[in-house]
Design goal:
Distance between the termini: 53 Å
Helix content: over 70%
Largest sheet: 2 strands, antiparallel
CATH topology: ABC transporter involved in vitamin B12 uptake, BtuC
Number of domains: 1
Strand content: under 5%
CATH architecture: Orthogonal Bundle
Strand order of the largest sheet: 1-2
Structural class: mainly alpha
Radius of gyration: 19 Å
Length: 299
């Protein structure tokens, strides 16, 4: 069994990953509450944005911040376009059809990434922030500012989203739509605009998650497409697709457990199962009436 000192560096990396999973989970929950769509293309959109950022920075020679902004805007615009084109048609369909449609988008983007950015001759790709080589010490552990940004982004976005849903007119409209879409429309709420805002916001968060994970983990299509989506989905399910704070806490736990398994050689090969195992345990422990409780009635 590794010593406590062996686990300490992985607490830092686990918290950073947990922050990224948290902001991703919040994006899934907000979109689900506003539209009823579970966006399984979340990770794929952020992954393509990260690869576009890499091309802008390394191929075009643009400053790093240009690539990061391009990644976030691309993810937001692509997700918004998908919502505007397919959102109205999906609104009247069941949750299974809605999810499968976004899964189709994820597979298309995954194939496009593999085609456009294929690896040859052992080519290594990476995205790094200027803060990667700077930081501070906590005890014997070196903490870089990029890890702080990862955790901080999760906290700030979760708190900001909570305040937005609670105090803004648009957030109130989203919460109302989560309860009953048709009644909300009768009160004059512009349903399409609210849904468009939810799609765009979810896309922006996928771009932020993609660029952060590309720096903290790796610029790898499989990692970016599936790791974010699966971990964020597990956290959102633990939060019953309703509570963003439970989603945040679940995401932090998933990130921590995933990385703390790394020093245990007998379990390292199973660490990618962490989201599935924790989500399954949580869903089994929850009272049956609370599992996957929908926040809006199906039409």
């Amino acid at each position: 069994m590794p010593s406590w000192s062996d686990f300490q560096p992985f607490i830092v990396s686990g918290l950073a990953l947990g922050g990224i999973y948290a902001l991703s989970g919040v994006g899934l929950v907000v979109l689900y509450r506003a539209t009823g769509v579970l966006n399984l293309a979340f990770g794929a959109v952020g992954a393509m944005g990260a690869f576009i950022a890499w091309s802008i920075i390394n191929k075009a020679g643009a400053p790093g911040w240009v690539g990061w902004i391009a990644c976030i805007l691309f993810a937001g615009v692509l997700t918004l376009a998908y919502g505007l084109i397919f959102g109205p048609a999906l609104a009247g369909r069941g949750p299974l059809v809605q999810s499968i449609c976004t899964l189709g988008l994820a597979l298309v983007l995954f194939g496009a990434i593999d085609l456009l950015w294929s690896t040859s001759a052992g080519q290594s790709r990476s995205i790094s922030f200027p803060t990667d080589n700077s930081g501070f010490m906590i005890g014997q552990v070196q903490v870089n500012w990029t890890s702080v940004i990862g955790l901080g982004a999760g906290i700030v976005i979760t708190a900001g989203t909570h305040a937005f849903l609670r105090y803004s007119k648009l957030g109130t409209a989203m919460r109302a739509m989560a309860n009953d879409r048709e009644i909300t429309a009768t009160f004059g709420v512009p349903i399409r605009r609210v849904e468009a805002a939810a799609w765009f916001g979810c896309g922006l968060l996928s771009g932020i998650a993609g660029i952060l994970l590309a720096d903290l983990a790796a610029l790898d299509d499989t990692t970016l497409v599936f790791t974010v989506t699966i971990s964020a989905l597990a956290a959102a399910l633990i939060g019953r697709l309703r509570s963003i704070w439970i989603t945040f806490a679940a995401a932090i736990v998933i990130g921590l457990v995933h990385d703390l398994i790394t020093p245990i050689s007998s379990l390292t090969n199973y660490q990618d199962m962490t989201p599935f195992v924790l989500a399954t345990i949580a869903l089994l422990v929850m009272p049956r009436g609370q599992v996957l409780t929908r926040t809006r009635e199906e039409g």
